[in-house]
Specification:
With about 300 residues, the chain is mainly beta. Helix content is about 10%, strand content about 45%. It contains four helices and 20 strands. A hairpin with a 2-residue loop joins strand 15 and strand 16.
């Protein structure tokens, strides 16, 4: 199945014509069961999963500067009810009335093919095509997704998720909901409720009551990655996204997401596309809001 889905993957390396390409410090390594390891200097720091056995692609783990995962699978106190919390994932609660957020309803964000794998000195990317299929087997949306890892100093990193969504057959309505598109389940020890972590947003608000369902350029979750070291993960909304700054759905139990359709539904007519860009900034301890804002500004100006 892996080779049926992922064969003939083009791998691109930076280098002048006729010269030996520079050795890629950051690589995407295809693995069995349609999984892809992103490595920095030979060490895996995240894994992208898109096998047929999952209802939607997801990323787990994502390793922080302390060497521990900054995300987890499932809610620590409700593993069955929140089994759709798959580390880092893309979904939506209402696509033409179908739920692509929860598990068990028969919908799938199905992996179709790999378009490109690109390795490099400071970053590596994976471009895939997905199809959003309802419980009756009807394709509702086609998606092109690009996942890019940028290696920074001191074990910090950026993870970019870029989406291009288009109706598969006729128009599509993305219903009003706080669930979708990008979701993140933060590690238990980093959460506010279980680990004493702290939530902040770009507007200076702190923790769930002040941050929940508020517009912001970014939201940051920082807490203990080890007994002695804090790590953090900040979710950035790009200013080119429609409705920026977006609403954020953030809880003290370790959940955060960008709520694209929080205020109103979004209709895509046949032939139209929706393009969205998000960045996760994985950072070490003592990272001030002013520093996070500077990193967001780099994302704002990134090509």
């Amino acid at each position: 199945m892996f080779w049926a889905l992922c064969s003939a993957i083009p791998v691109l390396l930076a280098g002048a014509s006729g010269e030996l390409p520079a050795f890629p410090r950051v690589q995407v390594v295809p693995l069995p069961l349609c999984q892809f390891a992103f490595e920095v200097e030979g060490v895996e720091v995240l894994r992208y999963h898109c096998d047929d056995c999952v209802s939607k692609p997801y990323i787990f783990p994502l390793i922080g500067p302390a060497g521990r995962p900054v995300v987890r699978m499932g809610h620590p106190h409700d593993p069955h009810g929140h089994r759709h919390h798959l580390g880092i994932w893309v979904g939506h609660r209402d696509v033409n009335g179908s739920d692509f957020w929860s598990e068990g309803g028969g919908t799938r964000v199905a992996h179709v093919r790999v378009e490109e794998v690109r390795d490099g000195r400071d970053s590596a990317s994976l471009m895939v095509c997905n199809r959003w299929v309802d419980a009756a087997g009807k394709a509702l949306m086609d998606e092109k997704r690009t996942v890019t890892l940028h290696a920074l100093e001191h074990g910090e990193r950026y993870l970019d998720v870029a989406l291009v969504l288009a109706p598969a057959d006729g128009g599509v309505v993305l219903g009003k909901t706080p669930f979708g598109f990008l979701g993140v389940r933060v590690a238990k020890t980093m959460s506010a409720n279980d680990g004493g972590g702290t939530i902040r947003n770009s507007e200076g608000a702190v923790n769930e009551e002040a941050v929940l369902w508020k517009r912001a350029r970014w939201v940051d979750y920082t807490g203990r990655a080890t007994p002695d070291e804090d790590n953090g993960i900040a979710l950035f909304d790009h200013p080119d996204n429609p409705g920026h700054p977006t609403y954020f759905h953030v809880r003290g139990d370790g959940w955060m997401g960008a709520s694209f359709c929080f205020e109103a539904p979004c209709t895509l007519a046949e032939g139209e596309t929706l393009e969205l860009r998000y960045r996760l900034y994985v950072h070490g301890p003592n990272t001030l809001p002013e520093s996070i804002e500077k990193h967001w500004a780099l994302f704002r100006n990134a090509p």
